[in-house]
Specification:
Blueprint lengths: L3 E4 L9 H5 L3 E4 L3 H10 L6 E5 L6 H5 L6 E5 L8 H7 L2 E3 L6 H16 L2 H9 L15 E5 L3 H14 L2 E5 L10 E2 L3 H6 L3 E4 L13 H7 L4 E4 L8 H9 L5 E4 L10 H4 L4 E3 L8 H19 L15 H4 L1
Helix pairs in contact: 5-7
């Protein structure tokens, strides 16, 4: 009997035949109501769940799926998947780290260019019949700081250094000996060493609110910040305050705390560029991501090691019993 996969992701329908051709039976539940109904109606049938970090899979949902064996997360982040609940049940969790790195890096640089060169405001002015001569900074020769030098951070660094002659610094959990970029020991030190700061770190408790008022003040009134990672990394109220008071020059954001809701304060600012969490969306990235999910599922249900396992916490089941 083929394994049944509950698909919670709303952006991959065109590529789901990849999984169907591999013999998997799919249940599509992209809305909250459909998700709840599918878990209730098909609880004993579901063997795998396909989700993404912001959608997650919660402890009560995992408990409601007695035959769940594997959770596949699209993208690198898995912040709303209850890893402890998965570990206690012996459920495997995989992610898609690195698959959409090129797409996210492209979007990060597009946001940076749009923000620093003030492209949206210039476009709007021309459409109104105006012809403003707006003087804006160049990217060439500037200092770029990257918070999180994983696959996405590395792709951004290469584009910045090789394409725009920018010097690159980074802050990571650990110093990387395989790169020549300048390592900064704290986010504040990184901001102080940067003209532009791009956030490319995973979400979750370990990175929550790394970017606060202290970091933003270190970036300074001529500094720009771009977030293509997770909104949880930034204290949003501190960011809005810094933007309103012009303690930083501007921000470009692809992620928000309560998506799809965006604070009105951000939407009203002229020194902000906003996109609807689309950095990782491209045909190439989506196809590659679904193909990786397929390879992980095939490996798992064939009794082989999965390709991209997520490290799980120690099981608590025995201690509870």
């Amino acid at each position: 009997m083929p394994a049944t996969v509950l698909v919670l992701v709303e952006t991959i329908n065109d590529y789901l035949p990849i999984l169907e051709h591999q013999g998997f039976h799919l249940i599509l539940a992209p809305t909250p109501a459909e998700r709840a109904e599918a878990i209730t109606r098909h609880s004993g049938q579901i063997n795998a769940v396909l989700t993404r970090g912001p959608l997650g899979l919660y402890a009560d949902e995992i408990a409601a799926l007695p035959n769940l064996k594997i959770i596949c997360v699209i993208g690198a982040g898995y912040e709303h998947v209850d890893l402890q609940a998965a570990a206690d049940r012996g459920i495997t969790v995989t992610n898609g780290a690195g698959v959409n790195a090129s797409s996210v890096a492209d979007h990060a640089m597009a946001l940076l260019l749009s923000l620093v060169r003030d492209i949206p405001r210039c476009d709007a002015a021309v459409r109104r019949g105006e012809w403003p001569k707006i003087m804006r900074p160049s990217l060439a020769g500037k200092r770029l700081g990257i918070l999180g030098l994983g696959a996405v951070g590395m792709a951004i660094a290469k584009r910045a250094a090789n394409g725009f002659d920018m010097s690159v610094s980074y802050h990571n959990r650990q110093h990387r000996s395989d790169v020549t970029y300048n390592f900064c020991s704290t986010p504040t030190e990184l901001a102080r060493a940067s003209d532009f700061l791009i956030i490319a770190t995973p979400g979750g408790l370990t990175t929550k609110h790394l970017i606060n008022r202290q970091v933003l003040d270190a970036l300074g009134p001529k500094g720009f910040i771009v977030n293509i990672a997770r909104a949880s990394v930034v204290v949003t109220t501190d960011l809005i305050s810094a933007l309103e008071q012009r303690r930083i020059a501007g921000a470009a954001l692809d992620v928000f705390d309560a998506e799809p809701q965006v604070p009105d304060a951000l939407k009203s600012l002229t020194n902000v560029v906003l996109t609807p969490h689309v950095a990782g969306l491209s045909p190439e990235a989506t196809q590659g991501t679904v193909e990786l999910v397929g390879r992980n599922l095939v490996a798992f249900f064939s009794g082989q090691p999965v390709l991209t396992p997520v490290e799980l916490p120690s099981r608590l089941s025995n201690a509870v019993l």
